[in-house]
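Q: Please design a sequence for this.
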């Protein structure tokens, strides 16, 4: 870790920000640190973008001065919390006053007390995020690691800096951050910490829906979101994040005929979508495309298990889900369209396709036709290689027909 200076200096834009912020801190007689995810990602040789700076003075005042020095193209202050955000050359820089935060028993708003860097690091969620590096000219690159975060990065462990019961009670959102970081970093949650997530899960009730939804979106943006969803199922957080998914797990067998575990299938589709695209909206559509299967499940003595109309029922369910999760209207409409249409390309692939049938699909999907086809490809979860090959070939045919019909109509 002796090469931390080299790591700090490897990006010219970042280096300039650190130098100017450090010089400002020196002129104000103010200890100035880089903290959190930026340092964690730097030590893991990952691309570090969002910059978090903590100062042992008024963070908003410091940020205003830094904004002028950098000639930043955006500035937002949160005076009550002693933080401010700057925009500079597509970078987001957050400047905070060193502080501690605690949630009262039934309050959704934290009690903020300004303090020093040690208190600030102790209030953070996990030891891997409690590493601070000074950017003052006289101590540039000096590491402060009071909770052995560097060791836990090496061990790939998520451990709370204080007793996990206190950490999760102080800010219950940290429980969701735990499962998100487990997926994002491919780290393991410490056993004691995980047990305390189970114990404190009801505390999520005091967290605003907006913050919960934001964590859900961040989880869907990871390389393998299923890791987080399985941890939410195991810890019973799912009840407070996405209760509609509680009915998905399990397989019922009648007369020797069973069906897919909808929970497992759904998360396979989400992971497949994550491999096919970085677009979070498609991954979200993968999460909800079969949301109505549990309530539309029926057994037929001849056909076996059926889910008739689950795409239409799912579309209606999304309206309620979006309202509860406070999703933007545009995202709600997007999820409804893809859920309603996710079986259509499959149906077209099973029969002789007419131009009019393809045209109807294009008309209904509109600009989302390409996203719909990505979702359909992600929906292939069979383990049979010959079936996979067959399904992919069928979708290739449908996509080619879509292109041809579009070309004909343009001509």
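A: Design:
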């Amino acid at each position: 870790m002796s090469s931390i200076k080299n790591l700090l200096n490897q990006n010219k834009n970042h280096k300039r920000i650190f130098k100017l912020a450090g010089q400002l801190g020196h002129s104000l007689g103010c200890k100035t640190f880089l903290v959190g995810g930026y340092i964690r990602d730097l030590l893991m040789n990952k691309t570090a973008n969002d910059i978090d700076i903590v100062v042992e003075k008024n963070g908003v005042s410091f940020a205003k001065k830094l904004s002028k020095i950098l000639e930043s193209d955006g500035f937002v202050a949160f005076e009550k919390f002693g933080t401010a955000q700057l925009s500079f050359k597509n970078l987001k820089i957050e400047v905070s006053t060193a502080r501690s935060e605690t949630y009262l028993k039934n309050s959704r708003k934290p009690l903020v007390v300004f303090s020093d860097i040690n208190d600030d690091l102790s209030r953070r969620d996990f030891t891997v995020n409690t590493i601070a590096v000074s950017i003052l000219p006289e101590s540039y690159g000096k590491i402060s690691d009071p909770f052995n975060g560097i060791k836990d990065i090496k061990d790939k462990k998520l451990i709370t800096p204080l007793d996990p019961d206190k950490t999760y009670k102080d800010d219950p959102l940290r429980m969701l951050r735990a499962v998100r970081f487990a997926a994002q970093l491919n780290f393991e949650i410490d056993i004691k910490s995980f047990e305390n997530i189970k114990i404190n899960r009801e505390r999520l009730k005091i967290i605003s829906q907006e913050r919960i939804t934001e964590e859900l979106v961040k989880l869907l943006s990871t390389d393998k979101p299923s890791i987080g969803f399985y941890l939410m199922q195991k810890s019973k957080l799912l009840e407070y994040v996405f209760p509609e998914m509680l009915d998905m797990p399990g397989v019922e067998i009648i007369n020797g005929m069973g069906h897919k575990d909808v929970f497992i299938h759904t998360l396979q589709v989400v992971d497949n979508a994550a491999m096919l695209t970085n677009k979070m909206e498609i991954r979200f559509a993968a999460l909800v495309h079969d949301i109505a299967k549990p309530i539309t499940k029926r057994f037929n003595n001849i056909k076996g298990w059926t889910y008739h109309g689950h795409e239409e029922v799912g579309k209606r369910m999304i309206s309620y889900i979006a309202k509860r999760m406070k999703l933007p209207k545009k995202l709600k409409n997007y999820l409804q369209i893809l859920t309603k249409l996710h079986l259509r390309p499959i149906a077209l692939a099973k029969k002789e396709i007419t131009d009019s049938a393809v045209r109807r699909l294009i008309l209904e999907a509109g600009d989302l036709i390409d996203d719909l086809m990505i979702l359909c490809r992600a929906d292939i979860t069979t383990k049979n290689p010959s079936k996979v090959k067959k399904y992919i070939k069928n979708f290739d045919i449908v996509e080619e027909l879509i292109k041809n019909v579009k070309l004909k109509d343009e001509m």
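Q: Thanks. Anything notable?
A: The first helix runs from residue 4 to 8. The chain has 21 helices and 13 strands.
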